[in-house]
Design goal:
Helix 2 (58-65) links the parallel strand 2 and strand 3. A three-stranded parallel beta sheet has the order 1-2-3, covered by helices on one side. The longest helix is centred in the middle third of the chain and has 12 residues, at 32-43. The chain has a domain at 20-73: NAD(P)-binding Rossmann-like Domain (Rossmann fold, 3-Layer(aba) Sandwich). 25% of the residues lie in helices and 20% in strands. The termini are far apart. With 80 residues, the chain is α/β, with parallel strands linked by helices. The mean pLDDT is 83.
């Protein structure tokens, strides 16, 4: 298995064709920058796993993307 870490702060001109065929896991992927990242990675050929809060629009985002995308409700915030 090959793991590639990709910054959530991708610049528009960044070439991310290296993700084609890989699986990208993005937290906070149902809205904002996370959603834009999910959409871009998916468009570039990555399979995407979207993690966000259960009450988010994660299911809707995955339906919009079509295939090669899943939503998993998750809370990755730090609790002390």
């Amino acid at each position: 298995m090959k793991v590639v870490l990709i910054s959530r702060c991708l610049q528009p001109q960044t070439n991310i064709h290296i993700v084609q065929g890989l699986v990208a896991l993005v937290t906070g992927g149902a809205s904002g920058l996370g959603k834009a990242t999910i959409e871009r990675l998916h468009r570039q050929g990555a399979k995407v796993a979207l993690l966000d809060m259960a009450k988010s629009r994660g299911d809707e985002v995955v339906k919009e993307l079509g295939g090669d995308a899943i939503f998993t409700p998750a809370d990755v915030s730090l609790h002390s």
